[in-house]
Amino acid sequence: MAKRNRKFIDAVLLTLFFASLLTTFFSKNLHALAGVFFLFAVWIHNVANQNFYRTLGKGNTSRKFNQICIMLFGTSIILLTVSGVVLFFPNVKFFPNVNWLSIHLGAAISSFGLMIIHLLMNASRYVRGGKLFLATIFSIALITAGVFGLPYLDRWYHKVEVNRAEIVDGEKVQFGGKILTVYFSRVTNTDFPQDVDAVSGASIMRDGEEIFGNAQMIAMMVQDATGSDLLAIKTSKKYPASYSETTKVAREEFSNDELPALDFRTKLDAYDKIILVYPLWWGTLPKPVESFVKAYDMRGKILIPIVTHGGGGIGDSVEVLKKITDAKVTEPLDIYSSDISSARQNISNFLSNAD
Ligand SMILES: Cc1cc2nc3c(=O)[nH]c(=O)nc-3n(C[C@H](O)[C@H](O)[C@H](O)COP(=O)(O)O)c2cc1C
């Protein structure tokens, strides 16, 4: 095939890759369609560059490195395709315990990075000196943006269809003492409009007409595992329906060191253990959770933190907890927001050892 035609196919391939990424944030069907076109372009690209297979394992170190990147890129594309098909047909239960969403996101990130390395390696054959240096810097910047930016965008636009009964039910744990599971979640402190899907970056879990927060879903799993009582931390004020507006309000709370008022008062005397489930906010403990913890004398109690997050882990939230409570704070469990629907067994395992 003529070099010009090959370049055209590469340009189409690249455009379709970015189209597949972008459509994630608009529509599932559009995303799938862009994905199918992208796969078709990958196939044509393979046919046009068959020579690659004939020269596999040959050439200098840089060529071999490029070949390894291409093979890894191919593996990522296979993972992307399989996970994409499983996610597109949720009723077909294919390895239901596997977290296909995380695999899909991970494969998208690695494909993105490997594709840029592959492009750079090819460019290095034609471009030299300052231009190659600039292209390398630009590639590193793009890869960094992909590695950190894609999970960040995923966190914002996280909208997951779940079957609550199915994901909450699981292995029960023998857990001594009287237990209370307390959770704080954005969803239970927000008045969402009827058409919640139209809200910018809604970041919610949905089971039919009902919507759930991540921490809320985890708290329900904990309740199912332990048979504990369940309590939601509710603030007097409501948070904005828009995800980005909520992050701004939260940032204000941190900079003003504001402790939001809570609209309930419960007695904790009867409980020996409190399992506290909360999302990581700005790398730390959300202010409403601080309001809750500071409102009680928890001497003699055991506090078990479970943190849900978008990649930041527990941040310094557990350190903050230890400073503001007299309770004995145990080792925490952290759960990545894309892993919620498959977290049930992990929660039982954690609680079996936390007692
Ligand atoms: C105000 C705000 C701040 C956040 N800050 C962080 C953060 O610093 N690091 C992180 O990994 N995730 C952060 N997240 C993401 C949440 O921790 C994550 O999406 C969590 O699973 C949400 O739980 P929820 O649905 O129960 O509120 C933030 C979310 C919000 C709303």
Helix content: 40-55%
CATH architecture of the largest domain: 3-Layer(aba) Sandwich
Mean pLDDT reading? 88
SSE succession = HHHHHHEHEEEHEHEHEHEEH
In the CATH hierarchy, the third-tier topology of the largest domain is known as: Rossmann fold
Structure description:
It is a single chain. With 355 residues, this protein is of the alpha/beta class. It has two domains: 157 residues, no CATH class; 195 residues, 3-Layer(aba) Sandwich (Rossmann fold), CATH 3.40.50. Helix content is 52%, strand content 11%. It contains twelve helices and nine strands. Strands 2, 5, 6, 7, 8 and 9 form a six-stranded parallel β-sheet that branches. Strands 1-3-4 form a three-stranded mixed β-sheet. Helix 1 runs antiparallel to helix 2 and helix 2 runs antiparallel to helix 4. Flavin mononucleotide (FMN) binds next to helix 8, helix 9 and strand 7.
